[in-house]
Design goal:
Length: 143
């Protein structure tokens, strides 16, 4: 039996939030490391879930994430591609950069942790509701 796409989407989002929490914790741990740049995790791409729902029909809604490619001119100006894999990228939503080059602000990171916690709670509640609906549909008590 295939996993309903809403459960697949919830699972993917919860994994993303767990990865993001780990990266934010690393930012906090390195808040006093000279030259350290804050990182974040890119949001997951849900376009394949949408394609499953629409059957890939032409004219159906689509989602596309812009892809920025580093050109030679950008490199000549000193631009560098972010390091890391798994969707980890440099965080550009920072409020200050310290004289030593570190741009991690603990307050900003704690706000992000709070948002992650709220999002994870929302996903957990959606998961529970979906499970309850599935139990009801199967004729079991939806406790």
């Amino acid at each position: 039996m295939a996993v309903p796409s809403i459960l697949a989407g919830i699972t993917r989002e919860m994994k993303h939030l767990a990865d993001r929490q780990r990266v934010i914790a690393q930012n906090i741990a390195n808040s006093e490391t000279p030259g350290f740049k804050a990182r974040d995790v890119a949001a997951p791409d849900f376009s394949e879930l949408l394609a499953q729902q629409t059957g890939g029909r032409s004219g159906s809604p689509s989602i596309a994430r812009p892809r920025v490619m580093l050109t030679g001119a950008m490199s000549a100006l000193g631009a560098r591609a972010p390091r890391g894999g798994g969707g980890i990228q440099l965080d550009h939503d920072v409020s200050e950069t310290k004289p030593d080059g570190n741009n991690v602000t603990v307050e900003d990171q704690l706000l992000k942790m709070g948002q992650i916690q709220a999002d994870f709670t929302a996903m957990t509640n959606l998961y529970r509701k979906q499970q309850s609906l599935l139990k009801t549909a199967l004729g079991r008590s939806g406790g």
